[in-house]
Amino acid sequence: MISSTGPAQALDGSRIDGGLYTDVTEFARHTHWLNQAMVWWTGYGAVLFVLLLVAGWWVARRGGAAMMAGALAGFAAAAVSYLVNSGIKDVFTEPRPCRALPHDFLLEACPAPSDYAFPSNHTTVAFAAAVAVLMIHRGLGALGLAAAVLMAFSRVYVGAHYPHDVLVAALVGSLVAVLCVSIGRRFGGPAVQRLQSGPLRPLLTT
Fold it and tell me: Among 40, 90, 144, 149, whose CB has the most other CB atoms within 10 angstroms?
């Protein structure tokens, strides 16, 4: 749904799933024992996804050149997904739920009006990293996907995003990861193979 928010038309997220957002934030209001853990995770959980990408690179050292190229492309996927997601934000300019629903429970301070909600950057990057790692190693990728789902939920739990913000973000991050890793594997293998015979060999193979 679209509503007027000044000189431009912006996405009104409260009309899409504002009720579900309120249900989640009310759950947060009544689970004080969980609040601090979720605030910590939503703020610092990104470190885990960096570590997973590094772990994917380490595992890929025991694989072929194409596998290493895909692992390196995982880092690019995280960066590209952030850029794509930021572009989508600028198109839809959806105000944060804390502005449309100011009386709902919040654990995270309401951002500036120019910091839009749709889609969630945290969630996009988390899913991009998780899916990229999944394409290298199933076990690490499964851990990453579980962590990405928790990141998505935490963004709604702390009051930063509507549910549709994180759902679309998960899709964007996943698609970007599949595209980047697939391109990396297909076209980056020869370059990695050449580098494996030079001074970078210890970083690219065992």
Answer: 144
Q: What is the pLDDT of residue 6?
A: 40
Q: What does R_g of the chain's alpha carbons equal in angstroms? A: 19
Please identify which residue in the block is written with the tokens 């703020």: 43
Tokens at residue 26, please? Answer: 């009310």
One-letter identity of residue 30 = H
Q: What's the pLDDT score for residue 3?
A: 41
The answer to whether 94 touches 18, Cβ cutoff 8 Å, is no
**Cβ neighbours of 23 (radius 10 Å):** 14
Summarize pLDDT for 57-108 with one digit per residue, the tens. Answer: 888 888 888 888 889 999 999 999 999 999 999 999 999 998 888 888 888 8
Query: What type of residue is 48?
Result: L
